[in-house]
């Protein structure tokens, strides 16, 4: 069965039900690759600049001890503000840090194994690219959110998938598990994703690379999220 056949079949099924009321779309901040220097102050400014639901520590090419050292002050900043602290890639590191959750790419392990290690309260997210099939598999495996992307061109990461915003509408009409939109999202292009049904917008460069600083970026997103 192709993804289009699956869509048609499940859409008929969805029409039988009233859509669930969903919480308003929220921001999910992704860290830059360098969290040294004044990054802790920039994180505080971002989180104090408006409402942010979650922060993901996304560091690459560092050993786990170095990531753990970098994580500790950032985790405190998040917990003081009741912002969920999510670790990218590594269940072991999420466990070691006592993080609120882990984000798993398709090569980062099975959500069932992550759940066994992190327990029932952990937030486990899964990258699903532009695939309805991967998202349903992630849901069945116990993911707490599914992430679709990259919706727009991005220089933060090399990407190979470009979903349409309609995948968010499809998902949110059929499933209660929240969906995250990621990839090149800015205040200028975010509205279509919010209107399509994204529960979270995951953003990196639009916040950390904003000319006016991270607080101004968060404020600009708030205008889109709560116009
Ligand atoms: C919220 C969110 N969605 C997708 C990703 C991408 O994860 P992954 O495919 O494992 O790629 P890397 O981020 O590890 O390069 C993400 N990190 N967060
Ligand atoms: C980390 C990541 N994952 C993506 C995916 O498509 O799965 S896109 C992406 C980069 C997100 O950063 P920015 O907001 O700067 O584009
Ligand atoms: Mg990964």
TrEMBL record:
Residues 27-207 form the Thiamine phosphate synthase/TenI domain. Pathway: Cofactor biosynthesis; thiamine diphosphate biosynthesis; thiamine phosphate from 4-amino-2-methyl-5-diphosphomethylpyrimidine and 4-methyl-5-(2-phosphoethyl)-thiazole: step 1/1. SUPFAM superfamilies: Thiamin phosphate synthase. Binds 1 Mg(2+) ion per subunit. 2-[(2R,5Z)-2-carboxy-4-methylthiazol-5(2H)-ylidene]ethyl phosphate binds at residues 154-156, 184. One of its GO terms (cellular component) is cytoplasm. Its EC number is 2.5.1.3. One of its GO terms (molecular function) is magnesium ion binding. Coiled coil: none annotated. It catalyses: 4-methyl-5-(2-phosphooxyethyl)-thiazole + 4-amino-2-methyl-5-(diphosphooxymethyl)pyrimidine + H(+) = thiamine phosphate + diphosphate; 2-[(2R,5Z)-2-carboxy-4-methylthiazol-5(2H)-ylidene]ethyl phosphate + 4-amino-2-methyl-5-(diphosphooxymethyl)pyrimidine + 2 H(+) = thiamine phosphate + CO2 + diphosphate; 2-(2-carboxy-4-methylthiazol-5-yl)ethyl phosphate + 4-amino-2-methyl-5-(diphosphooxymethyl)pyrimidine + 2 H(+) = thiamine phosphate + CO2 + diphosphate. Keywords: Magnesium, Metal-binding, Thiamine biosynthesis, Transferase. This is Thiamine-phosphate synthase. It comes from Sphingomonas parva.
């Amino acid at each position: 069965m192709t993804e289009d056949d699956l869509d048609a079949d499940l859409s008929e099924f969805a029409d039988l039900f009233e859509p669930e009321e969903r919480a308003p779309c929220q921001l999910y901040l992704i860290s830059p690759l360098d969290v040294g220097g004044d990054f802790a102050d920039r994180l505080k400014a971002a989180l104090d600049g408006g409402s942010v639901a979650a922060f993901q520590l996304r560091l690459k090419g560092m050993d786990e001890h170095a990531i753990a050292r970098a994580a500790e002050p950032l985790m405190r900043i998040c917990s003081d503000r009741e912002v969920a602290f999510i670790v990218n890639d590594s269940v072991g590191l999420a466990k070691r840090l006592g993080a609120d959750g882990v984000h798993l790419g398709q090569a980062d392990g099975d959500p069932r194994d992550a759940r066994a290690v992190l327990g029932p309260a952990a937030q486990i997210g899964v990258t699903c690219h532009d695939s309805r099939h991967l998202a349903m598999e992630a849901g069945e495996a116990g993911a707490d959110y599914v992430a679709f992307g990259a919706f727009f061109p991005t220089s933060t990461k090399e990407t190979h998938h470009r979903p349409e915003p309609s995948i968010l509408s499809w998902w949110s009409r059929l499933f209660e598990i929240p969906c995250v939109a990621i990839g090149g999202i800015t205040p200028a292009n975010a509205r279509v994703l919010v209107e399509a049904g994204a529960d979270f917008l995951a953003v990196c460069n639009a916040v950390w690379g904003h000319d006016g600083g991270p607080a101004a970026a968060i404020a600009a997103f708030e205008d889109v999220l709560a116009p």
